[in-house]
Specification:
8 helices; single chain; 214 residues; mainly alpha
Length: 214
């Protein structure tokens, strides 16, 4: 127990880096994904094709490869990022693609008759989206967004390849220094606690939205 108490301060610093990556990714990728989703269902064919290609690339290649590309490959052509900037760029672009598809499926799940009804009532496109479509989309997409968010918590550990001192790298350094696997167990508890909090939060969010379906 004394050893655990001694390593907790260092583990908390690593948690801070992990939490920062998680929050920035969520805050940036969700709105980008929503905007891209509207582009995916727009009437502009070229726009749909470009976004579909972007989504295909980002979902079809490993996130770790994207991290390595932004940090190691781009500098070879004169484009340089810090380790944190490269990680944020890769995470935001990757998760925006996944959220784009989630939002797209939610938008397409709204019956077309509701668009026609809104048009009959004299609503503009923006009003239709804000008052009719988006509230229904949010109810539909909560479960898949919950899954992606929990996956993101675990994916943050991939930044160790950029030598960032996140929770996983901190735990590995402590294990190598002290020849003790306890830091891995502590890191596992931190990840489990984070996913538990998110699971409870999204379950309550689903219950909140389900009241409007009754």
């Amino acid at each position: 127990m004394d050893y655990v108490l001694n390593i907790i301060p260092q583990m908390l610093i690593g948690c801070g880096v992990t939490l920062q990556i998680f929050l920035i990714t969520i805050v940036c990728s969700l709105p980008i994904g929503l905007v891209l989703a509207f582009g995916r269902v727009s009437s502009l064919r070229i726009l749909r094709s470009l976004i579909a290609f972007y989504v295909w690339v980002m979902r079809g290649t490993p996130l770790m490869l994207q991290l390595l590309f932004f940090y190691f490959a781009l500098p070879s052509i004169g484009i340089r990022f810090s380790d944190f900037s490269a990680a944020m760029l890769a995470f935001v672009l990757n998760y925006a693609a996944y959220f784009c598809e989630i939002f797209r499926s939610g938008i397409q799940a709204v019956p077309k008759g509701q668009y026609e009804a809104a048009h009959t009532l004299g609503m503009s496109y923006v009003q239709t989206m804000r008052r009719i479509v988006i509230p229904q989309v949010l109810r539909i997409v909560v479960p898949p967004i919950s899954n992606e968010t929990i996956t993101l918590v675990k994916d943050t550990s991939l930044v160790y390849v950029l030598a960032m001192n996140d929770l996983m790298r901190t735990a590995r350094n402590l294990v190598q220094r002290d020849f003790d696997i306890t830091p891995f167990l502590v890191a596992g508890l931190f990840y489990l606690l984070a996913t538990l909090v998110l699971t409870i939060m999204f379950e309550r969010l689903e219950k909140h939205f389900s009241r409007y379906d009754q």
